[in-house]
Design goal:
Structural class: alpha+beta
Domain Integrase catalytic: 1-111
CATH superfamily of the largest domain: Ribonuclease H-like superfamily/Ribonuclease H
Helix content: 10-25%
Radius of gyration: 27 Å
Distance between the termini: 67 Å
Number of domains: 3
GO molecular function: nucleic acid binding
Shape: elongated
Protein name: Integrase catalytic domain-containing protein
CATH architecture of the largest domain: 2-Layer Sandwich
Number of strands: 13
Pfam family, one: SH3_Tf2-1
Largest sheet: 5 strands, antiparallel
């Protein structure tokens, strides 16, 4: 847990946000408060917003804010049976996931500051909690798996997800069981919600999940089919011969410009 200070005072008088992130499910809570709120006020908010929903945590990681290290705060958690862990000075990475959540939230608030003004507090509750139900279709992040990626390189416009796959069971609030295709039968079929993206199923837009051996650097071997054209590239002191190559990229054809000298050395059969 951590605080974000220095916000414009809202219509309810709040100028800070108390950020609390569940280490297991990654669920984040954004609780508006005042910078000078007492430990008693924070303890009441903590019980109403966190304990009521999730129960009493076993441990809490936070920085050394004066309220977190106070005798009253320690006494509250001693009674609840929660262990308190504090980061050392100038080492915010101890509570890294909360720091990253803070950074993302601050960026979003800054982008919308002119629109929100003093109403920023009203928009905190509008963040979307992602949930799926049995029967939904989802995409699965590709970079999780070696031997599954079927793209030559993970370029900017290359697909980043496999699927879609059907959700067959909600194992717990942040994990779902999927009906995987036969090509992925060797994988465990339960996935965290962070690697899933909801899909509006369209049979005409299914991304194939053919098994292709992935090499170092997330690359795969592709075969050149033929030379489609030639050109010369003028540099300062020399001219480089270029060839337009048609590739067989896992069942899909692609065209790229390559150095003629390199292609002759690696694929002499194209020039015979």
């Amino acid at each position: 847990m951590d605080f974000v200070h220095g916000l414009p005072r809202s219509q309810r008088g709040h100028d800070s946000i108390w950020v609390i992130v569940d280490r297991l499910t990654k669920v984040a809570h954004f609780i508006p408060n005042k910078r000078d709120d007492s430990v008693e006020t924070l303890a009441k908010l903590y019980v109403e917003q966190i304990v009521r929903l999730h129960g009493v945590p076993r441990s809490i990681v936070s920085d050394r804010d004066g309220r977190f290290t106070s005798k009253d705060w320690r006494l509250v958690h001693q009674m609840l049976g929660t262990k308190l862990a504090f980061s050392t000075a100038f080492h915010p990475q101890t509570d890294g996931q909360t720091e990253r959540t803070n950074r993302t939230m601050e960026d979003m608030l800054r982008m919308c500051a002119l629109d929100f003004g003093k109403n920023w507090e009203e928009h905190l509750v509008m963040h979307r909690n992602v949930e799926f139900t049995v029967g939904d279709w989802v995409y699965l992040k590709i970079k999780l798996f070696k031997g599954v990626s079927r793209i030559r390189r993970l370029k900017k416009l290359s697909p980043r997800y496999l699927g879609p796959f059907e959700v067959v069971e909600r194992v717990w609030e942040a994990a779902y069981r999927l009906a995987l295709s036969s090509e992925l039968s060797g994988l465990h079929d339960v996935f965290h919600i962070s690697v899933l993206r909801k899909a509006v199923k369209d049979p005409a837009q299914v991304i194939d999940s053919d098994r292709v051996p992935v090499e170092y650097g997330l690359t795969t071997k592709v075969k050149p089919i033929r030379i489609e054209g030639r050109a010369e590239k003028q540099l300062r002191n020399k001219v480089i011969g270029m060839v337009k190559v048609r590739w067989d990229n896992c069942g899909r054809e692609e065209l790229t410009w390559e150095r003629e000298q390199t292609m002759q050395a690696e694929f002499p059969e194209l020039f015979s």
